[in-house]
Write a structure and sequence with these properties.
Elements (H helix, E strand, L loop, with lengths): L1 E4 L5 H12 L3 E6 L8 E2 L5 H11 L3 E4 L6 H6 L1 H22 L2 E7 L21 H17 L3 E6 L2 E2 L8 H10 L4 E4 L3 E2 L2 E2 H13 L4 E4 L6 E2 H11 L7 E4 L19 H6 L7 H13 L9
Parallel strand pairs: 1-2, 1-4, 2-3, 4-5, 5-6, 6-11, 7-10, 8-13
Antiparallel strand pairs: 9-12
Helix pairs in contact: 1-7, 2-4, 4-5, 8-10
Length: 299
């Protein structure tokens, strides 16, 4: 299988390339702004150039973990949000359709309003934000375009080793190691999801011929405070430095789903045990960082 990973420099993208190569697949990763050895520069804003390049690669599957995921930034710049999360993946999906290739799109729990979570794959979306709306429209357009050749992988609160060291766990460790207090929303609930598992699970789903919507998330649903304190304890840091504050008092630009989280009903049937518990994932995270290599270390 030949795979293209759009956004190979990012958190899920980096682990996708790792999983694909471990499983013996040919893979090519792209980047837009952050370069790493072996990646091809591709600017998704150039729709014609991106489509032309993808046609020359003739992939069997295209993974699209790229996008504009800063929720407050999306609220401020809806055009950029729709371009990165809707127009650019659709542009490449049309090429995939012409080539007879499969397409994997990474979506979010922000499709839901957070009033009656956690949600399974059959729940009706009702996004509150520009980001969530763009992701929902992308899902709908991709399913209409590709039918059973598209896999939608919805995930949430992704953490773990990554080359850029940007995810929530990294920021928490850096802050607490500096002896500073970290304030997190006390009323937001969702599903922490380990990046390496998200990547390996979606590769396995494609290998096994699955399509449609899958929730690819960790098995637990918890508050952001509980999640943060679990990270602190695993890294030997002081949990009391983590303080909870109501979302309404935090001045975040975009509305958040509060009682959220995803249930991985289809994934549990297709790949039982594919997503590790938070405790197991955090231990693996710490050991991976201890081993060095290409993954960033909090400092």
């Amino acid at each position: 299988m030949k795979a293209i990973v759009i956004g190979g420099s990012g958190q899920i993208g980096g682990w996708l390339l790792h999983s694909l190569r471990e499983n013996g697949h040919e893979s090519v990763g792209t980047y837009c702004t952050v370069a790493y050895p072996g990646l091809v520069r591709l600017d998704g804003v150039d729709l014609e150039g991106s489509a032309r390049w993808l046609r020359t690669e003739k992939p069997d599957v295209v993974f699209f973990p790229a996008g504009f995921t800063w929720v407050d930034g999306c609220e401020k710049d809806p055009a950029k949000a729709r371009g990165a999360n809707l127009d650019q993946p659709l542009n490449l999906a049309r090429v995939a359709a012409d080539l007879g290739a499969k397409f994997v799109y990474y979506s979010t729990d922000y499709l839901f309003d957070g009033r009656r979570g956690p949600y399974d794959e059959r729940a009706t979306p009702n996004p509150l934000s520009v980001y969530g709306q763009a992701k929902l429209e992308a899902e709908q357009e991709l399913i209409s375009l590709l039918g059973d050749r598209v896999l939608i992988a919805r995930t949430s609160w992704v953490f773990g080793p990554e080359r850029q060291g940007k995810n929530f766990a990294y920021q928490l460790v850096k802050t607490l190691r500096a002896g500073k207090t970290l304030t997190v929303p006390s009323d937001q609930v969702s599903s922490p999801s380990y990046g390496p598992d998200v990547a390996s699970a979606t590769v396995r789903l494609i290998e096994d011929g699955h399509s449609g919507i899958f929730h690819v998330v960790g098995p637990e649903v918890m508050s952001r405070v509980t999640f943060a304190r679990a990270i602190a304890e695993e890294f030997g840091l002081e949990p009391s430095l983590i303080q909870g504050k109501a979302t309404a008092e935090m001045g975040q630009g975009a509305p958040r789903p509060l009682d959220g989280g995803l249930l991985a009903s289809r994934l549990d049937l297709a790949l039982p045990g594919a997503m590790r518990s938070l405790a197991t994932a955090l231990a693996d995270f710490r050991e991976t960082l201890r081993g060095g290599g290409e993954w960033a270390n909090p400092s």
